[in-house]
Design brief:
The complex is a heterodimer. By secondary structure, chain A is mostly helical. Chain A contains 8 helices and no strands. By secondary structure, chain B is an alpha+beta fold. Classes of the chains: A mainly alpha, B alpha+beta.
């Protein structure tokens, strides 16, 4: 394979895998901006090591090594730079990662199911959810616009997420019973 | 007392929303380590958080379907490069122009395009985190996602969709007006332009009953790849009279109410095949019209005029970050911690502490398109822009200043080597409620932004307001015998639009919100000593932004 074609293939695999990497990182580092930063660093690291990637090798396990390294690097950086920041312990993260692995077999249809559940939300709740995950506006700003306390919106977000989880559980149960 | 599972749910919500308290996080940590049910709950909750984030958060796209914010623009979105790789300076051409950059930029653009997410799953074993336990799974019924919407009005009021929604096979989208972008799992993308009716017929194309679309194709090769990707079919848009088959990159298709089909190629090559089997090959810049003649036989003709096509949906830029501009960026790259020398206009890579003597002259800044120049207010009329515009409202000053015009980040590392008053400000949050950062200066200093250059750089929007929170800052553990007094000025084309004379520390902060007109050219911010000397005059402009408004297209 010539270098440009190898680059093309590498790029394609990276693009395909990047949501996996993002979800993986976000599970371990729940802050969206931090997770995106780590994804960026991972992307740069991956690109720097592209020559070492063997095309016959599955991409995700190879790429996840870099993501895992970047997560650890971020945690060390955060611990050093922001000593006051309290984060989950390494022990807790390891336990979570183990459970995450078991969860994968159940997660296959969750995108589709969640999609349907989101569609069932009231417009206002879906709008709030969209704003929560839009980096250009903070919940505080949304609260200011709506003339309510941010805590009210955070509470509402918690209820919406719980409703979505309930909906996902219910749908999975229904589909299994068919 | 709430039930245990409720408490855990609240903790998880607080974790995701970053409102969790340290004690609560420690409690959650203990629960995670001790209780398998809590771990299960955590994994499910964070999985939901990740999916919502992937589906709903995609930088740079039109999001707000409720307000219909958005605009058409035929440029690549500026967020892409600056968001995944180190921010670029308007001057940094060496790397920007390199092949490596192009490839990385392409990578990043694709990354952000596809951050909407496909249904690939990941599993992870902590004891052997790199083990080959990953699998990819696709749901066959969904071929892509909605990745952009602009002011969509549906022919059927019952239609409900949103950015991030999956696009199932056989789904028909009938737009009365507005634009809808669908990105297929292959990476190929179509932009529907209402009024139109488009049905997704396969994972590699659809049927355009009427209306217009633009398709941009990402080829993934014809052979199955080593990681199991399926070979990609050729992308085709069918119409009532023809099939437009992609042979490379980007094309537009317009279908009239009578079924007549116009195909136009922007890049690459397409094959147009009529229902009767006639073929035409089109290259970049070429068009063809497929019509039915009186005998209902298909034939090719040259269209009298090529329809216009929407080729890109871009989220409108809502504000320019002036901290980033001062630091050498384009207002979008979140640069900080690199300032300006107010006596020369050159870059200050470090925060300078010493006195700087002005020469009474205006110093144009040639290295930055958006900064016109700098000056030190002295005695008498002062030139404040590069076209010779002057202002004589400043009170007489010493003709000197201290230090840099410095854009400080909101969060700074207390353990870093940085030092100076700008890093010792008490209650800095009052200046930057949005946590963007603060421009710190000491009198006497002024600098001018070129609003015309802003309009030129961001063609789809224009600056409509300057907003910042300004005032004198207090230093931590610093008992200065002087209170400090300053004059704050915001001047547009030589005319004051805001002034606060003799402002003291006791006055607190001043919220500056200055309206800017479409014809305004130069925006000047200046701080002069208020008459009691420069001691303790630590002046801050917090969260400084230029608010932008989309320019309405006729």
């Amino acid at each position: 394979m010539t270098a440009p074609r190898a680059n093309d293939e590498f790029l394609r695999r990276f693009v395909r895998a990047q949501q996996d990497l993002y979800a993986y990182i976000l599970t371990l580092v729940p802050n969206i901006a931090d997770a995106q930063d780590i994804l960026q660093e991972t992307a740069i690291a991956l690109w720097g090591k592209a020559d070492e990637y063997r095309m016959e090798e599955p991409f995700m396990p190879w790429a996840a090594r870099f993501a895992w390294f970047q997560v650890r690097k971020f945690r060390m950086y955060q611990a050093r730079r922001h000593r006051h920041v309290v984060a989950l312990s390494d022990e807790a993260l390891s336990a979570l990662a183990a459970d995450r692995a078991e969860f994968e077999s159940e997660a296959a249809d969750r995108d589709r199911i969640l999609q349907r559940c989101v569609e069932k939300l009231a417009d206002a709740d879906r709008g709030l959810l969209a704003k929560r995950y839009d980096k250009d506006i903070s919940i505080r700003e949304v609260a200011r616009q709506q003339g309510v306390e941010p805590s009210q919106l955070y509470k509402r977000l918690g209820l919406i997420r719980q409703a979505l989880l309930d909906c996902v559980h219910q749908t999975i149960t229904e589909e299994r019973s068919k | 007392m709430p039930a245990p599972d409720r408490t855990t749910a609240e903790l998880l919500a607080a974790l995701c929303d970053e409102t969790i308290l340290p004690d609560e996080l420690r409690r959650l940590d203990r629960l995670i380590c001790a209780d398998a049910d809590v771990r299960r709950q955590y994994v499910e909750y964070l999985d939901l958080h990740a999916r919502l984030s992937c589906s709903l958060h995609r930088p740079g796209e039109i999001f707000d379907k409720e307000t219909g914010d958005g605009a058409f623009e035929s440029v690549e979105p500026p967020f892409a490069v600056s968001s995944l790789f180190p921010p670029r300076s308007p001057l940094s051409h060496t790397f920007v122009g390199s092949p490596l950059f192009s490839y990385m930029a392409a990578t990043v653009i694709l990354c952000m395009m596809l951050l909407g997410g496909w249904a690939y799953k990941i599993s992870h074993a902590p004891s052997r985190p790199y083990a080959a336990t990953y699998q990819t799974q696709e749901h066959p019924a969904y071929v892509g996602r909605i990745t952009g919407m602009y002011d969509c009005r549906w022919a059927d009021s019952g239609t409900k969709t949103f950015i991030g929604a999956s696009t199932p096979l056989e789904r028909e989208y009938v737009l009365a007006s507005g634009c809808l972008e669908i990105t297929y799992k292959s990476g190929s993308r179509v932009i529907l332009e209402g009024p139109c009716a488009y049905k997704i017929e396969s994972s590699s194309g659809g049927f355009l009953k009427h209306g217009k679309l633009t398709a941009r194709i990402e080829h993934q090769g014809s052979a199955a790849s080593a990681d199991g990707a399926k070979p990609q079919a050729v992308f085709a848009v069918k119409t009532p009279t023809a099939a437009v088959i992609d042979l490379g990159t980007e094309f537009g298709v317009a279908v009239g109410e009578n079924g007549d089909t116009t195909a136009h190629v922007f890049q690459g090559t397409v094959k147009v095949e009529t229902l009767g089997g006639a073929l035409a090959m089109l290259s970049a810049g070429e068009s063809v019209l497929v019509t039915k003649d009186v005998a209902k036989k298909m034939r090719f003709t040259k269209p009298a005029a090529v329809p216009t096509f929407v080729r890109t949906l871009v989220r409108p830029i809502e504000q320019l970050d002036l901290l980033d501009v001062i630091a050498g960026g384009d207002g979008m790259s979140r640069r900080r911690e690199r300032g300006l020398d107010p006596t020369t206009g050159m870059e200050d890579p470090l925060f300078v502490l010493g006195e700087r003597i002005g020469d009474g002259k205006y110093h144009p800044v040639s290295w930055h398109r958006l900064i016109d120049g700098v000056f030190i207010p002295g005695n008498g009329p002062m030139q404040i822009d590069s076209t010779g515009g002057a202002f004589d409202g400043f009170r007489a000053t010493s003709g000197s200043t201290w230090g840099s015009i410095w854009p400080r980040a909101a969060e700074t590392d207390p353990a870093s080597e940085r030092r100076g008053w700008i890093y010792e400000i008490e209650r800095s949050e009052q200046f930057m409620p949005q946590r963007l950062g603060m421009i710190g200066v000491c009198p006497n200093v002024g600098w001018t932004f070129d609003l015309a250059a802003v309009r030129k750089m961001y063609k789809a929007a224009r600056p409509v307001r300057l907003q910042t929170v300004a005032g004198l800052g207090d230093r931590v553990d610093f008992a200065d015998p002087f209170d400090g007094m300053i004059d704050l000025w915001v001047i547009v084309d030589g005319q004051p639009r805001f002034k606060r004379l003799g402002m003291t520390r006791q006055d607190g902060t001043a919220r500056i919100d200055v309206e800017l007109k479409a014809t305004d050219r130069f925006l000047t911010l200046a701080v002069a000593d208020g008459g009691d000397g420069q001691a303790a005059d630590w002046v801050l402009f917090g969260d400084p932004v230029l608010k932008l408004e989309p320019i309405e297209k006729p």
